[in-house]
Amino acid sequence: MIAAQAFNISKVEQSKLKDINLENIPFGKYFSDHMLEVDYQDGEWKTPEIKPYQPLLIAPSISALHYGQAIFEGIKAYKNAKGEAFIFRPHDNFNRFNISAERMQMPVISEEIFMEGMKMLVGLDNNWIPSMENHSLYIRPFMFSTDELLGVRPSDNYKFLIILSPTGPYYHAPMRIHVEEQYVRAVPGGVGYAKAAGNYGAAMHATAEAKKQGYDQVLWTDAFEHKYVQECGVMNVFFIIGDKAITPDLGAGTILGGITRDSVITLLNEKGLTVEERPISILEIMQAHKAGELKEAFGTGTAATISMISELRYKDYMMQFDVNQWLIAPWLKNRLHDIRFGQSPDIYNWMYPV
Ligand code: COI
Of 16-30, 245-259, 340-354, where does mean pLDDT reach its minimum? Predict the structure, then answer.
């Protein structure tokens, strides 16, 4: 553990919180009073600073802007009825962050800076954790390369930051999804399993095209046959078929190992459902729908938590669902909510005290 004095801490003179209503707040639009910033130079991480949230001064030539060496994480903090703050499974995000760093040829961050820094920052800004239903404090750790050089090579210098955003629901209604057959998100050997910033930028065109046709998001399919489903927008995806839950497996390296995905698998097992992590084709999904066996379909992610799919369109075939009749997705949502807000015992040790 790094001692608190190993972080340079400077506080705001006056909090901005008084100007912001934390109820019904949009996702990712407002930022708390403080942020953490630390530079990587000469082969090591320097002293981390916790300081007032502020713009960065960066040169126009830094390599992240040109070649995209940039990664991030998404984590959430909650408050229980006693006002105590907890962060949901941050060690898992820490591990995944360093997996992304290795894939993008970036330096790994130490557990002390990531975990202790996050804990100190959330502790300092804990008044920013909303207490309203479906609200939380979204924690965004990220790293990018800062060499001022247009040559294409891994940078020698990096910045790691954590910013905090009080936030409401990502999606307000069940999603309408278009099965994507033209554009791809990830290929085996690529960076699909990493939380690389470019994955999200590269997905925007397909999503915009789907939106023009009235959809909220796309369901990504594999690059070779457009047959096997991968992720749903920025989320992992689950299908309840008969009495089983099926989600694409992580084997091909094309899918992000979601922490909500992993939590949902644990909870589905708790509920007694068989969970299959395996390739699942859109034809299997369509056949299950025709046979009346496709009961539910939903996305899982940190930002969106559990997001139900009300409509899934594959070519000319439309699958529509009355989500009000569903049992599993609402149960998962409530179960996760109760653990996060301290209304059920934390039997899986997911809640990390601040
Ligand atoms: C998250 O769920 O935290 C994500 O990374 C999605 C995000 C890009 C909004």
Answer: 16-30
